[in-house]
Amino acid sequence: MPVTEKTYPDWVQAYRTRGTTVKKKGDSYYLYKRTSKRVPGKKYPQPVDTYIGVITPDGVIETRKKKLELSDIEVWEYGYSKALWELCPQGWKDALGEEWEDVLKAILLQWSPQTYLGAGYAIKDPETFHCSFGAQAGLLSRRIYKEHKVDRKELEALKAIYLVRIGKEEAVSRISQEQQELLERLRVKLDG
Predict the structure, then answer these.
(1) Strand, helix or coil at 39?
(2) In this structure, how many other beta carbons lie within 10 angstroms of the beta carbon of residue 50?
(3) Hey, how many other C-beta atoms are within 10 angstroms of the C-beta on 136?
(4) pLDDT tens digits, the chain, 192 residues: what are they?
(5) Where are the domains of the chain?
(6) Is 58 exposed, middle or buried (0-12, 13-18, 19+ CB in 10 A)?
(7) HSE (side-chain half, CA atoms, 13 Å) at 102
């Protein structure tokens, strides 16, 4: 029995070149790049189709989506950590001297283990600080409340704002109305 080739309209047929295939779904025609690969246990190479775009009488509308490896995606807590970093009182920093950044990073890592500051940044062991780590964490919380009239519990609503890294690109996740109002009240700007 002879194999019958599917027939397509001329405007579709024009895009059926070597190394491509056309699939019809409903009234639409889709163009795919066709390759093959060997599969263990199969006698012949198996076809592999990669989507190119939809075929219209005016041409091919190619997809703009990029295929990414899941290993290239990182998601980190951002809003809470960024707000605490921005709200950190100058007096608290001055009292700790050059060590303030290391102490603040360690505090943030304790309060928000998924903080973006833990993403590839060296965090100093709290045991090596020249100050009492626990006392500094409590003092920081009280100083932020005194200067900005916001406590840590209220700031925890910002923990649902994430920094998303896809390869080398970064984006900040969606911010709710409640979170936006809190950020505006505190004059904290999130960039990403």
Answers:
(1) coil
(2) 10
(3) 21
(4) 455 567 788 899 888 889 999 999 988 999 999 999 998 998 999 999 988 999 998 888 888 766 656 667 889 999 999 999 999 999 999 988 888 888 888 888 889 989 888 766 666 666 776 777 778 889 999 999 999 999 989 999 999 999 998 878 888 999 999 999 999 999 999 875
(5) 10-62, 70-186
(6) exposed
(7) 16
